[in-house]
Amino acid sequence: MFGYVVRSLLLTSLLLAPPIHANTLTLSAIEHGILTELNFARSDPYRYADEVLEPMLQYYREGKIWDPPWFNKQPGHIQVITTHEGVEALLEAIEAMRSAEPVRPLTPSYGLTLAAREHAAEQGKYNLTGHIGRDGSTPEQRIARYGRWSLIAGENLFYGNSDVNAARHVVMGLIIDDGVADRGHRKLIMDGRYQYVGIVYAPHPSFGFMSAQSYAGQFHDH
Questions:
Q1: What are the phi and psi torsion angles at 153 (to 5°)?
Q2: Residue 19: what pLDDT?
Q3: DSSP string, 42-76
Q4: What is the pTM of this model?
Q5: Which segments constitute the SCP domain (predicted)?
């Protein structure tokens, strides 16, 4: 899981035309589910903590092993997850979400989705991780290939799959942010300055699947 944020000093949002909205996108069922989960967490973080995060406490065992029932137990699939911090990271996430202020839902963007798809396709082809592209591109540079962003831009990356409930697993993992000291993924998700998002869920040779999410405060497609 990786998070990346860039802030623009040029507040040009008043010059931007309205973004292209979800009815021009073709999202997979899992990608649409990720959007729904993101907006559930943003719009009602207290309920997200109670209904999504707190029930996960029962699936920790042997210290740092997390073994929710939806993981596929067949060979070649994820069996369990060995976390970095154990249940403490989940407890901290529950407390943080219960005290978080609700923020507006994200609107899906065509251009941001293209930026996310570009990065995921490259990482899947070359078995890569991280925010920097093979050509040295940063998230904001990739976003700028497909439109103009302003105010703030960022990227979240999640690696792994659970076969069932994959959309919830992606968002929950980013919000728990196990092993990420500054909880940057959660902070990005819960930052109300972000208004638009592009989402992809794609194969990855080492992790099975990955999700790339490109975010912007304002965005206008080329």
A1: -140, 150
A2: 45
A3: HH-HHHHIIIIIGGGGGGEETTTEE--TTS--STT
A4: 0.87
A5: 91-209
